[in-house]
User: What shape does this take?
Amino acid sequence: MRSLPLPLPLLGAVLIVAATLPEGAAAKWTAVNPNVVVVQQVGRFAVIVYDLAHSAGLTYVGVARGETEEAVGGGTIYRLVVAAAKADGSRAQYECLVWGVPGSSLSTWKLRRFRKIAIA
Assistant: This one.
């Protein structure tokens, strides 16, 4: 299968857009206080959504640490380490990535990642 080159006008438009992006447009993560109410709510949301989707039997315990970043196109991305417990009392930490707009309806929030992490 042969790839076709980009048409010249399209290539020019891509170059113009790339040239007009502000310098340092890379996202920047900012540490958050894990005890702030909105951070706790985001952590609880992540555990509940994951548990509902996977029937994992997890119960939210708390947020250990986290950081946020402004999302391209609006909203905030939360990267949190949350603690959760199973019914047998065992606990583990999970890294989660949640996108949402603080103050918006629950239906706009999205759990992007939820994975168990090894504790060093």
